[in-house]
Design goal:
Blueprint: E1 3-7, E2 13-17, E3 46-47, E4 60-62, E5 67-69, H1 72-90
Antiparallel strand pairs: 1-2, 1-3, 4-5
Amino acid sequence: MPVYEYKCGEGHVREFEAPRTWSQEFAGQQCCKALDDGSACRGRLKRVYTLSFAPVDQATFNPSVGKVISDKRQFQDECKRLSEQQTAKTGIPHKYEMLDG
């Protein structure tokens, strides 16, 4: 189950684990966080939305083709080009291809 983060107007943060269908159920509730002086915060909770991005694959040097490769399609194109080059050079059919992926 996902964990949802809520924050009251006083800055207190609370987390709730709940099914996605309940994600807004806790919004508007009172914070009720115990403060240092023994009283409780009565601020209203608001859902905190965060945004994260997936890492971008960086181009890396691939020794199999002798070039910097940035994606799977480029690697396949280079394998095909090298296969054709070696076939023309030796007269023996070559078929270089990616083994896993």
